[in-house]
Design a protein that fits this description.
- This protein has three domains: about 100 residues, Rossmann fold, CATH 3.40.50.720; about 35 residues; about 30 residues, no CATH class.
- It is built from five helices and seven strands.
- A hairpin with a 2-residue loop joins β6 and β7.
- It is elongated, with a radius of gyration of 20 Å.
- The protein starts with 12 loop residues before the first strand and ends with a helix.
Length: about 180
């Protein structure tokens, strides 16, 4: 079983081990969340050059994980993936080894983002393709304007919290914003 949470990575040091298409996808997602990303790999796909990440063109070293709040291994090498997982576990750093759940301390759900609204779908690692299919169904149902709606409700919520003291009436008003 997994415990779901949203991790604030904005400005935080994260590491991607790997330089291929999957590593690129993970690096893009972390950058979108504002993370300070370093990627280490002997080779990088050309698209990595267009991404604002620090690239270390060499093999992984266990010391690469030091000071990171999160590490993702996305390599084709089982040996490297095991080394990344072991280095992170030794230092209590959350680690995800793509498609190898037994080496992970966390898994990454399929994500639907509408502005500040983030919907995460997970099958606990049992079927990533099912999680993606469910996310696609939600994408079809949830309007593109949902993010703007959340921003408007958030602004109204802040105004209400500033203007009214704690009370049952304030609670009812806040709950009514969504209706």
């Amino acid at each position: 079983m997994y415990y779901p949470l949203m991790l604030k990575v904005n400005g935080e040091p994260c590491l991607i081990v790997g330089g291929g298409a999957v590593a690129l996808q993970k690096a893009r997602a972390l950058r979108k969340a504002g993370a300070d990303v370093t990627a280490v790999s002997p080779d990088f796909t050309p698209a990595f050059r267009r991404l604002a990440v620090r690239r270390l063109k060499r093999r992984f070293r266990t010391s690469d994980v030091a000071g990171r709040i999160l590490v993702i291994a996305a390599t084709d090498s089982p040996e490297v993936n095991r080394a990344v997982s072991a280095a992170c576990r030794k230092r209590n750093i959350p680690v995800n080894v793509v498609d190898v759940p037994e080496l992970c301390s966390f898994i990454v759900p399929s994500i639907l983002r509408r502005g500040p609204v983030l919907v995460a779908v997970s099958t606990g690692g049992q079927s990533p393709s099912l999680a993606k299919a469910l996310r696609r169904r939600l994408e079809a149902v949830l309007p593109a304007s949902l993010g703007r709606t959340a921003l408007r409700i958030g602004a109204a919520r802040r105004r209400i919290l500033r203007a009214l003291p704690r009370s049952a009436a304030r609670t009812r008003l806040l709950k009514g914003l969504v209706r």
